Structures are given as C-alpha cells and as structure tokens.
From TrEMBL, chain A:
<feature type="domain" description="ABC transmembrane type-2">
    <location>
        <begin position="42"/>
        <end position="269"/>
    </location>
</feature>
<dbReference type="GO" id="GO:0140359">
    <property type="term" value="F:ABC-type transporter activity"/>
</dbReference>
<feature type="transmembrane region" description="Helical">
    <location>
        <begin position="44"/>
        <end position="67"/>
    </location>
</feature>
<dbReference type="InterPro" id="IPR013525">
    <property type="entry name" value="ABC2_TM"/>
</dbReference>
<feature type="transmembrane region" description="Helical">
    <location>
        <begin position="189"/>
        <end position="208"/>
    </location>
</feature>
<feature type="transmembrane region" description="Helical">
    <location>
        <begin position="73"/>
        <end position="97"/>
    </location>
</feature>
<keyword id="KW-0472">Membrane</keyword>
<keyword id="KW-0812">Transmembrane</keyword>
<dbReference type="InterPro" id="IPR047817">
    <property type="entry name" value="ABC2_TM_bact-type"/>
</dbReference>
From TrEMBL, chain B:
<dbReference type="GO" id="GO:0005886">
    <property type="term" value="C:plasma membrane"/>
</dbReference>
<dbReference type="InterPro" id="IPR003439">
    <property type="entry name" value="ABC_transporter-like_ATP-bd"/>
</dbReference>
<feature type="region of interest" description="Disordered">
    <location>
        <begin position="325"/>
        <end position="345"/>
    </location>
</feature>
<keyword id="KW-1003">Cell membrane</keyword>
<dbReference type="GO" id="GO:1900753">
    <property type="term" value="P:doxorubicin transport"/>
</dbReference>
<keyword id="KW-0547">Nucleotide-binding</keyword>
<keyword id="KW-0813">Transport</keyword>
<dbReference type="GO" id="GO:0016887">
    <property type="term" value="F:ATP hydrolysis activity"/>
</dbReference>
<dbReference type="Pfam" id="PF13732">
    <property type="entry name" value="DrrA1-3_C"/>
</dbReference>
Length: 270, 345
C-alpha cells in the first residue's frame, strides 16, 4: 500500500486466458490440493485400506472357484481389482470437490483473473496422488501373495500410468456430479449407482465366457473391460494392443465431454 | 481520449456504473433495478439491512453472479462481456472470509499470489510483506482454524490486495468484529483509498458508512431508496432522533401532532412499543416540545434523544422499519442485535 496504485484506466488488459496460463493456474491449484492432503492425511484412509482389503478378499474368495487356485487367479484378479479400486477412488474426488466448493475460498477463485478450469483441473490433478497410492498398494499386495507379472517392472509402470490417467479422466464425470449435486453425500450416492454396474459387469473378476450371451454383449462393450484387458496385456504379456488404444481414446472422449460441461456448471453455480 | 482503443474505458471518472441491475432467485427479486455510480478514488457505502440485496449486488459487480437484467461496468468494462478484464481490476473480500481454512496464512497468500502470476520467490516475498502489514506475521504458519474472526478478515483483505487492484469490494468488512479490530479495519480502508484505490463497501451500520464513505446508497428490498453524500443523507434523517412514549396510550395521537407542530417534521409511531420517533435537526428544540407537552397535560413514560440509527434512516426513507430480524434464526438475530447495541447505545 506504500506504492501508489495504478489507475484502472491506465492498465493494459485482455479478456481471455492463454493456454499456458491455464496450465500454470491448474498446477498452482494442484499444489493447493497437495497441501490439503498433507494437512489432513486421514483422508487417505480409503485409498490405503481399500486396495489391501479388496485384494485379499476377492483373491481368496474367487481364486479357487474361477482359476482352480489362488496362484493362477492372481494374473486375472490383480489387474481387475486395480482398475476397480482406483476408479472407485475417483468418486471421492467428486465428493471432496463438492465439500470444497461450499467454502468461501471458491468465491475468491471465481473473482480472480485466472483460468476458469483451473480450480477444477487442479483439484483433480492433485487426486492423482490418491490413485498412485492405491495403484502401488494393489501391486504390492499382489506381490506379497505371490504374483510375479510376466511383463516385468517396466510394463507394470506403464499399466500403472494408464490406470491413473484413465481414472483422472473418469473423475471428471464425478466432478460433474459434484458440481451439480446439492450435497456431498448425494454425489457419493449417484456415483456409486453409476459405477457399481460398470465395474462388476466387466471382465475384471470372472471370465466373460461364463456369462449369458446378452450379458457378454454388454461386458465386451464396457470400457472398463477394455481397460482391464489393456492392463492384463501389459503386465502379464508385455504387449500393447487395441484395448490400450481404445482405453486412451475413451479417456480422451470423457475429458472432452465432461471437462467443458463441468466448467460450465461450475460457472453457473452461485 | 483514444476512442478506438479496446482497453480504453468510455468514462474514466466512474469506477463503477450500474444501470437497472436485477437478480431474481425464484420468486424473490433479490436485486430489483439497482443504479449506482461510484467515482474513482472514493469510498462508496451501500447501506442496508440483511437481505436488502447488498451482497447480491456486489456479487454481480464482481462477476460472481450474472445479472438477469440491466448492465454494469467497472472502469468502463462490461461485467458480462469482459469478465476476465473486470477480474483484473477488482479485489473482493466477502462477507464470510474467502480463504482456505485448512491451510496456513502464508500458504493462502502464496497460492493466491501464484495464481495472479507472481513467481515462486516473488509470491513468498509478497505474502511476507502483506502479513507484516496486517500484523499477522506471528500467526503466519498456524492453520486458519485457530484464527480469530478479526485475523481472518484481515487475511481476507490482505489476499484481496495482492494484485493492487484499483477497485476493492468489501462486503460487510466489520460485521462480527470487536470495536478495536473494527477501528483497525477502518484505518486500513482509509489508507487504501489514500494510495489510489476505490472502495465499495456494504454495511448494516450507519456509523460505519458515516466514518468512511464519501457517498452512500441506502438499499432496501433490492432497490436504492436514497443516495447522496453522508451530509445529505443525514440531513434527511436529522442529526439526532427523538423517542417518546406517553403514559396513557390514548394520548399518542395528540402527542404526535404536537411533536410535528413543534419540530416541524414528519414523525413515526413504532407500533410495538407505541413509541413516537421523529428526526431532530436541533436538540435545543426538545425544550419547547417538553414545555408544550406539559401544558397540554400529556404525561411521558419515556423520553430520549439519540443519534440516528439505521432503523430511523429506514423509517424515515422507506416508511417502514428494518424487517430482517423476523426472518433470521434466533441465533443470528441475537448476534445482529448485540452488535447494534454495541454500536449505537
């Protein structure tokens, strides 16, 4: 306040934000998200416990029935449970975004001359930390139970990045629910209803050929199945095929549709 | 003036120009045709009770809310057509601190600075500088959860000043603050204007508007019901206000006539207490009135002469009292009442 403020009329201003600025703003917002996670580490409970419990549970329950024994089931279930766990985790992104948006600080974000997408993209970006934790823990649990991916560590890493990227894309759907929903708990509700059939009506847990024909049709269409297959090919065989391409295109399409409508809905909120 | 320049505003002297702003929420016309003109380098006070439309008006001017009708421009830039330019010219401090509860004061300011395009080192420097200026250095590393209301407000205002905006919106900057903190806030606002800023502030307190504002708009039910300098507004209410209660209710009308005769003003009756209130230009006149009342044989139960409160400004200008309390929850109502007493009694 010691220096004189430049009068409004003399400032050179422009009415749009550049792509570079959007990226910088989003990264700053992601930094804010990380600080928040650091401050409240208890919000990482779900991503820590869920992979451990689910991996143990599903492997020992279904292992014998589906693949004869647990060892043979691991290459099937670990990619399946990985996709299911990480994508379920992305629901929390929508719920937390909803809670965050109730706070006054979002008013300030809206009043700043920053890219409109940044508060949302940043929050979603910070949550990739959660997906990474869930991914690492799932692989570690598999390793402890005796799973040794044929593809080797390099392909496991590629698969991990693929799952995290796709979950980030899918989290835009839940972010949209988060922006339009009235309460945080309703976000959880809508998201679970959408996600439960999608993850279970897939090839994540059981071979598709054991299902009735009409169901096979849906399961083979289901993008989750393609993602699971892509991960299996990567970690078990070290190959990249059509499923990988299909998953990436699917992720891109989701972002292309949901990012703009989420930002629009966010701008409309009072 | 360069007419062709895109950035050149049409009229450089107005920081804010609003014409017929309307915002409807369902059935409720929260803002119902507000006109405002705020000169550059001044403090402009928007005075009104809760629910009068003050916050909604600010939110529209600050591009947080899209007006349903009407238009507004900030330094000549339309809030709907050029929102991103407007955002570069304003700082907004909301009624409820718009800072991040789970982070520390420094982290908050650093993040806002980074968002405004400052580099890493610059942002740290700016944060430290502002914390120093607002007396928050000691609390810099603590999470905001442990901040008092006053500290939060100060941090909030500090955050609005990072980019040194030429126009600052302050939505009830002192509501809920103790008198000492309130005075500090007032000093800060005065310093801001000295350094060249324009300030639009909303308040429920006439005294606050009186202390700070160059011009005042009184707003009620979403409309500007009076506008002018502090002196003009005060003259319409009187420098002080008289309150009378007679012992026998049947004397009320008689007493009222005498009040109007002697003081030569319009009086009002507060229904609930059968109290007569009237603006008074000169306290000296009260002697004439009291003598007249004794001669007429009207015994008084209560008599006081006070500085005008917001209630009286409202009563005089709108013909009805401040009605918000009924709509509030008991809790909030108590809070508002408590502050009124602190300010005026």
């Amino acid at each position: 306040m010691n220096t004189l403020i430049k009068p409004g009329a003399e400032r050179r201003l422009k009415n749009h934000t550049s792509f570079g600025q959007s990226v910088r703003n989003s990264l700053t917002m992601a930094y804010r998200g990380l600080l928040k996670i650091k401050r409240t580490p208890e919000q990482l409970f779900d991503v820590t416990l869920q992979p451990i419990i689910f991996t143990l549970m599903f492997t020992y329950i279904f292992g014998g029935a589906i693949s004869g024994n647990v060892q043979n089931y691991l290459p099937v279930i670990i990619p399946g449970i990985l996709v299911q766990t990480v994508i379920t985790t992305s629901i929390v992104t929508g719920v937390q975004l909803r809670e965050d948006m109730e706070k006054g600080v979002f008013d300030r974000f809206k009043s700043l001359p920053i890219s409109r997408i940044a508060p949302l993209a940043g929050a979603l970006l910070a949550d990739t930390v959660r997906y990474t934790i869930a991914t690492v823990l799932t692989f570690v649990m598999g390793y402890i139970m005796g799973y040794r991916p044929e593809g080797g560590i390099g392909y496991v890493a590629i698969a991990a990045v693929l799952v995290i990227a796709c979950s980030w894309a899918i989290s835009w759907i839940f972010a949209f629910f988060g922006v339009i929903a009235r309460t945080a708990s309703s976000v959880q509700g809508i998201s679970m209803i959408a996600l439960f059939p999608l993850t279970f009506l897939s090839n994540a847990f059981v071979p598709v050929n054991t299902m009735p024909d009409w169901l096979q049709w849906f399961v083979n269409m289901n993008p989750i199945s393609h993602l699971v297959t892509a991960v299996r090919n990567l970690v078990n065989a070290g190959t990249m095929g059509g499923d990988l391409v299909f998953s990436l295109i699917g992720a891109a399409v989701i972002v292309a549709i949901f990012a703009p409508i989420t930002v629009r809905a966010y701008m409309r909120r009072t | 003036m360069n007419q062709n320049s895109i950035t050149g505003p049409h009229n450089e002297s107005w920081a804010i120009e609003a014409h017929g702003l309307v915002k409807t929420f369902g059935e409720n016309r929260a803002v119902d045709g507000v006109n405002l003109k705020v000169g550059t380098g001044t403090i402009y006070g928007v005075l009104g009770p809760n629910g009068a439309g003050k916050t909604t008006t600010i939110r529209m001017l600050a591009t947080l809310l899209r007006p349903d009708a009407g238009s507004a421009s900030i330094f000549g830039h339309d809030v709907v057509k050029e929102p991103q330019i407007v955002r570069q010219l304003i700082g907004v401090t909301g009624q409820y601190a718009s800072v991040d509860e789970s982070l520390s004061a420094t982290e908050n300011l650093v993040i806002f600075s980074r968002l405004l395009g400052l580099g890493r080192a610059e942002a740290r420097h700016k944060a430290a500088e502002l914390l120093e200026e607002f007396g928050l250095t000691e609390a810099a590393k603590r999470p905001l959860k442990h901040f008092s209301g006053g500290m939060r407000r100060r941090l909030d205002l500090a955050a609005s000043l990072i980019a040194q905006p030429p126009l600052i919106f302050l939505d009830e900057p002192t509501t809920g603050l103790d008198p000492r903190t309130r005075n500090q806030m007032w000093d800060t606002i005065r310093r801001l204007v000295k350094s060249g800023s324009t300030v639009l502030l909303t308040t429920q307190y006439l005294e606050e508007a009186d202390q700070l504002a160059d011009r005042i708009a009184v707003i009620d039910h979403g409309r500007v019901v009076a506008e002018g300098t502090v002196d003009e507004l005060k003259a319409s209410v009187g420098n002080s206000s008289l309150q009378l209660r007679v012992q026998n209710p049947q004397d009320v009308e008689m007493a009222r006539r005498m009040v109007e005769q002697v003081l030569k003003v319009q009086s009002n009756i507060l229904a609930e207490a059968e109290k007569i209130t009237a603006p008074m230009g000169n306290v000296h006149q009260v002697t004439d009135l009291l003598i007249a009342l004794r001669e007429a044989g009207i015994p008084l139960a209560e008599m006081s002469v006070q500085k005008p409160t917001l209630d009286e400004v409202f009563l005089t200008i709108t013909g009805h009292g401040v009605q918000e309390d009924a709509a509030l929850t008991p809790n909030e109502s108590n809070k508002v009442e408590g502050q009124k007493h602190e300010y005026f009694n």
